[in-house]
Specification:
Largest sheet of chain A: 7 strands, mixed
Radius of gyration of chain B: 21 Å
Number of strands of chain B: 18
Radius of gyration of chain A: 15 Å
Largest sheet of chain B: 5 strands, parallel
Distance between the termini of chain A: 25 Å
Number of strands of chain A: 7
Shape of chain B: globular
Strand order of the largest sheet of chain B: 4-3-2-5-6
Helix content of chain B: 25-40%
Largest interface: A-B, 42 and 50 residues
Strand order of the largest sheet of chain A: 4-3-2-1-5-6-7
Oligomer: heterodimer
Chain lengths: ~170, ~425
Amino acid sequence: MIFEGKAWLFGDNIDTDAIIAARYLSTSDPGELAEHLMEDIKPEFPGLVAPGDILVGGENFGCGSSREHAPLAIKGAGVSCVIAKSFARIFYRNAINIGLPIMECREELSGIEPGSDRLKVDLEQGTITHLQTGRVYKAEPFPPFMQEIINKGGLIEYVKARVNPAK
Amino acid sequence: MTKATNHNHGSTNHGSTMVEKILAAKSGKNKVAPGNLVNTKIDLALGNDITAPVAIKEFERFGVDKVFDPEKIVLVPDHFTPNKDIASAEQALLIRQFAQKYMIKHYYEIGRMGIEHALLPEQGLVRPGEVIIGADSHTCTYGALGAFATGVGSTDLAAAMVIGEAWFKVPSTLRFEFQGPLPRWVGGKDLILYTIGQIGVSGARYRAMEFAGSAISELSMDGRLTMANMAIEAGGKCGYVQPDQVTFDYLKGRVSVPYEAVYSDDDAVYEKVFSFDVSDLEPQIAFPPSPDKVRPVSDAKGIELQQVVIGSCTNGRIEDLRIAASVIKNKRVHPGVRMLVIPATQQIYRQALEEGLLTAFIDAEAVVSTPTCGPCLGGHMGILAHGEKALATTNRNFVGRMGHPESEVYLSGPAVAAASAVAGKIVHPEEVN
């Protein structure tokens, strides 16, 4: 899978309360959640983010609560992929489980103009290309087991296939 | 850093940590090592009124007509309950109906319930050596009883409700040794805040945290539950204390089914061992907006407060209420402060009533509420306005955590919180006693 979109930069330790505040958790509709994505740390963000865009975080992206509403809100906004130096573990599981593409890239993505520069992400190759400069970054590969969940389109489909391999 | 090795094992065949042993046993393996991926049988799966509705939707995609075991699923409506609005009422309804349809044994309606992570140990649903997952990040609390317990998302919960299994990457383990007698006014909350301050919010990311040392041996079960609860605030996969007499005394009368306590081997391999002398530790405060911005209370003195919250899965247990009541008895909450006290379970509420603790809070002009997560996550029951500051015994102080994005939350243990409610600003408990 190859994605191309505008990049939005976020720092280290972006917590799930920042991604979607608890006051919006009385719904789990991705579209409704998306209207409040990153609202408390970047109030204008829900109006700026567009389908296909790519979020770029620092260390420990998605720390804090286990709320799956966080990756759901990101998915609901049409974000194609989240790249971070590292992910908090529950967010990492949740993103893979719901089929939100994520990539761990230890290298700092530098010189990117947020909201205008474009990135091209190749999930199979594990590469991230900064289209303005042509610079290519290499992402950490997924363990094969996780790649299988990703290939199946999420945990539910993966487990379904395991429970009922004939179908 | 490796702990001193030798004993009966060969030089290449070192021992295992408690978590490695539990994961091996429940995955049908003799031994596992950090980094191994395992499919593990789970003893208990937990959801609440925010995470279970999402899990139920996913569960229905399987098209199965039963859960793997109706006795091994726990559903607790505790976050936005008693229902704060219509949308929350609908979510609570969804899990109530699910519980009825699938005959979930451990569904706890309000009036019988409590904040999940205080409730499950209290009800005897957590036992040493077990594997527990919960669609709530503070599921790590149960490590205080020698279980492997970790937070997952709703989809993980949905799959577990069908197959009774979950996959894990075996974590490496960080060992934390706390030495020295605990000074007065210092408890489990101060130890864990100090630890998070030392290693940072991602210092234990993907790792298990083993708490040990003389200060832990002396620590009550309530204090241990507080510590394990906040392992996630350091990024930890779980936090635990190996079972000892304190554990067995706590389990007595609560647990009737057999269980097997599991211990780390003397020659277990730790990724790193930290040793903290806590004999002179001051009460600790986490400054906004991160649980690792931790400083001693003397550095926070004088910060004016508009709200104090004592409660949550972190510090809403009977010992916390006893400490807070002992500080506030015969005193009054400062006129500029709203103080909320939230006993974490119905049983704790009752006990606090019988011990006269609630009278002490009410006489001090504090609000006493039925169990709810409410203000901890900015849900309801004590939301902050723009510019307001709160001191809370809760677990997170992220931007907007308790209300307006421009409000601020400081974290502490119950003694500092109660004293500060009286003073109207952050103080050391000695200053009001």
